[in-house]
C-alpha cells in the first residue's frame, strides 16, 4: 500500500473532480454540452494599507484545479474532457518584490490540467468553445464569482445557480488522494496536540498552549489553521467555541492550578482540514470529577464510532450518544429518573447541546450536510449532518458533556425538569467546564477508518503529562 506521502506527491486529481461535477450538472444542461468556468480568489488589499489580506483559496476552484494561486481561473469543456488553467500575466513590478511567477510549463508539470494559458486568453477560449458547439453549449459559473470582464458570448445559456451545489454534492465523497491529504493534516495535528499537552504542564496562560499548537503545525507543513484554535482551561471549556485563549491556568480564587484544558485545534494541509479535540490534565493527572466525565464521553465516542458504515442514519448515531450520556450521568447521580424518561424529556441536551459531528474536507464544517436548524426538536436542531452517510465521506465524531451555567440553569429553574437534575451533586462538576473528544472518521462500505492518531486513552495522556511535568 502506498504511503500518504507517496500518494500526495502525485498530482491532485482535478480532472476526475471535474468529471464528477459535470455528471452532477447533466440534468441542468438539458442534453446540451456543459462548460464550467471558475475563478480563484482575488488578491485583496487590507483597507487603508498597502499589504494584501491573508489569502484563502476558493474551494470550488481548488477542487477542479488543485491550484493555490490567486487571480487565476479555469475552463472545463465536459464534452471534450479538456481542462484549461489560466494564470495571471507576469507583472514586472511584482517580480521585483516577489520573484518570478509560475510558468505555464511548470504549471503543466504541477497540475492535472490539459493546457495552461494566460488570463487575457479566457474570453477567446470561451468564445471558441461556444462556436465549436454551434451555440448550443451551457456555461456554468458561480454567481458573484465572475469578473466583470468575463463574457459568455455564443452560449445558449449561462447558469449561475447550479454549479455551486453540484460541487458541494461532489465534495461529500472523497477519493483516495483527498483521504491522504486529510490523513496528513491529522498526523500533523496529532503532533500539535502532543506538543500542547506537554506545554500545558508548565504553561501559565492559555495562549502559551496555543502557541505550541501553531508552531508545531507550521513546522510540519500546515502553515494555516483549519479554524482559530480553542484552548479553554477549567470552566472556560463549558463554552463550546471559546474564543479568547488568554486566561491564566491558575485559578484566581483558589490560587491553585486549574484541573484540565480542552483543546480543539486542527492544521490545514493543502486546503484539507483536520479537526481534533482533546482534554488534558494541567497537573499530570485528571482530577476525579474530570476523569469521571472523560470516561463517559470516551464511551459515547467509542460506541458511536462502532456504528459507522455506509448507509448508517446519522440521527440514530447522535441519539445513541445521548443514551450513553444519560446512563453515565445517572451513575454519577447528576441525573435522576428513568433512562427513557430522561431521553424523551431531552434532559441530556442540557449537558450535550450540540450535534455529534459534521462532514470534514476542504472546510472544517464541510459541504453537503443538509442541516435543519429550524428543527423544533432540541436534540437534533444543531446537527450539521442529516440523513445517511455515504461510503467515502469523512465525518467528525465529537461527543461532549459540558457544565455551562447559562445552558443548565433554565433546566434547574423549570418546575417540570428540575426534578431530573440533582443540583447538590452537580455542584461538584462546575470546575470541569467541558469534556469533548473528537476524531475524524472515513466512512467505508463495511465500517470506518479512524484518521486521527492523537492520544486519547487516559493512561497514555497521563503518562505523557507526567513525563512533561518532571
Automatic annotation (TrEMBL):
Assigned keywords, A-Z: Aminopeptidase, Hydrolase, Manganese, Metal-binding, Metalloprotease, Protease
Tree of life domain: Eukaryota
Family per record: Belongs to the peptidase M24B family.
Signal peptide region: none
Provenance organism: Aspergillus taichungensis
Gene Ontology biological-process entries: proteolysis
Protein name: Probable Xaa-Pro aminopeptidase PEPP
Keyword Transferase: no
UniProt keyword annotation of Hydrolase present: yes
An MF annotation (GO) of this entry: manganese ion binding
Enzyme superclass (EC): hydrolase
Function statement: Catalyzes the removal of a penultimate prolyl residue from the N-termini of peptides.
InterPro entries: Aminopep_P_N, Creatin/AminoP/Spt16_N, Creatinase/aminopeptidase-like, Pept_M24, X-Pro_dipept-like
Catalytic reaction list: Release of any N-terminal amino acid, including proline, that is linked to proline, even from a dipeptide or tripeptide
Aminopeptidase P N-terminal domain residues: 12-147
Record EC number: 3.4.11.9
Cofactor(s) needed: Mn(2+)
